[in-house]
# Entry
Amino acid sequence: MSFPQKVKSTLWAIVDNMAGNTAHFVKNPGKDFTRERKLGFAQLIRFFLCMESGCLNHELLKYFYFLPEEVPTASAFIQQRAKLLPEAFRYILNQLNLRFPAKGLMGRYSLIAADGCEFNIARNPEDASTFHPTSGRSEKGFNSLHTVSLYDLLSRRYLDVVFQPGRLKNEFSALCQMVDRYLYGGCPVFVADRGFASYNVFAHIIEKGSFFAIRAKDINVKRLLAADSLPGRMDQWADVILTRSNARKKRLHPELGSLYRFICKDVPFDFITDSHPEYHMRLRVVRFQIADGVFENIITNLPPDEFSLEQIKYIYHLRWGQETSFRDLKHTIGTANFHSKSPQYIEFEILCRMTLYNFSTIITMGVPIEKKTEKWEYQVNLSMAIKICFAFLSDQMGPGNVNDLINHYILPIRPDRTYARKLRFQVPASFAYRFV
# Structure
């Protein structure tokens, strides 16, 4: 059995095992999916994973090979979909990752990036939690669903995701939640941008026994170090004692007064209680120059004997891999085109697309790359590889051609290239006017 066939068989085996015990994945155990239908549990999950960005009726036609007697109606799909819980799709995502363990940095550390991503959904001004009113981005206003996800930078896989209404997003809380339930073992190093720098996030990762490298603003580093200015290059440890009280008489270590940092009651911090009114934290602060007059700060707890300043700089640079993965997730796989207006069912589709992305990268990472010239190192064209793997998953091609086709579409690696980042608002595609 070839490796692509092994990955596909493993994915379908996970779905078949779930079909044998649906109690954890349906709203009404013992009742839902007990009758024989065209879209049973396993068939429904498989359809979700193979669904592209076309309109719903067209996707059903394609999946059932345009056989009139076999094709269920869109209404039947909607009724069956309503029986599922999000845990079904999260379980598939987790199990596929667990069946194919990823290799770590230095054989030990996993580099796990955390970042947020917005998905525009169908406009609904009545939903205050997702509707953004008229602004410079949109004349009519728009609705969005916010996701915060964990992404393995070395194996290029999505590991976990938290969904939040666009107007109620809280990235600090989402990252703490995912850190607490992280289940892949090893020594994860959580890498994140400055939107995630907070004492609560640091404490959750430390209590988990893990590591982090999170970018921070100058003003936050100055407060941490109690400094008026920052040098151009820095690598030092800082001790802080966090407390909810400003009263000096209540301090357990008054001789260390300069280390105390006050956290007001409105700022979440989960490790200060009545029995433990103070929390001691030791942080490493790294600062380096990335361009003329431009400096970056990284707060970390990585040991300096294993991770030098330059290594931490390199690790943070790898974080951009998650940013580019969002492009493939949204547009190459078609996650931006949903088949529902309900945020709950949109979660189903995002989880399925993440599973499909992982399915493609697991196969792609196992393909040996043949060099065309001696001038460049080469990499897989991930956009084409995803399309090839999707065709393989949906039985449009056999396993024998997968590796050869992926190897046919490779690109030279040209280091140090930079492009201006383009940010623009995009309206969700209408359900009725899609053709794939």
